[in-house]
Amino acid sequence: MTWWEISLRLLLAVTVGCVIGIERERKNRPAGMRTHVLVCVGAATIALIECMNIADTITLNMNNPNTGIAVSSSAASVFWALVRFLSAKRRSPV
Q1: pLDDT tens track for 82-92
Q2: Predicted TM-score of the model (pTM)
Q3: What is the phi/psi pair of residue 31, to 5°?
Q4: Do 41 and 54 touch, CB atoms closer than 8 A?
Q5: Is 46 in contact with 78 (CB distance < 8 Å)?
Q6: Is residue 33 within 8 Å of 18, Cβ to Cβ?
Q7: Which of 6, 44, 81, 84 has its CA 20 to 30 A from that of 35?
Q8: Alpha carbons 12 and 6: distance in angstroms, whole number
Q9: Closest CA to 72 of 55, 47, 54, 60
Q10: What is the distance, to the nearest Å, from the Cα of residue 27 to the centroid of all Cα atoms in its chain?
Q11: Measured between alpha carbons, how far is 51 from 68 in angstroms, rounded to an integer?
Q12: In the predicted model, what is the mean pLDDT of residues 39-51?
């Protein structure tokens, strides 16, 4: 993956986060533009790391077929953690 592909994907994540955040701010909902930009950039960064990790693992397995290295996916775990974080309701102090 080249540097311009990484830059383009991160720029697209910022753009999508801005659009979603601005729409939510216009409707006076919580989690505005900054929050959505951070979440989108974080998710894009994790996805890029996973893509690079998978590409490196495949290259390693192609060059050395007896390594037995498996591709693990932690992106799903990170995604569900972000969903739980964003959907958690704030509790008022007792």
Answers
A1: 777 777 755 54
A2: 0.69
A3: 60, 80
A4: no
A5: yes
A6: yes
A7: 6
A8: 10
A9: 54
A10: 25
A11: 19
A12: 88
Matching residue, tokens 């729409």: 23
Q: How far apart are CA 90 and CA 64, in angstroms?
A: 51
CA–CA distance, 23 with 18 (Å, rounded to integer): 8
Residue 93: what residue type? P
What is the C-alpha separation between 46 and 74, in angstroms, rounded? 9
Q: Which two tokens stand for residue 49?
A: 């790391």
Whether 52 contacts 75, CB under 8 Å: no
Q: Are 56 and 71 in contact (CB under 8 A)?
A: no
Cβ-based burial of 47 (10 A; exposed 0-12, middle 13-18, buried ≥19): middle
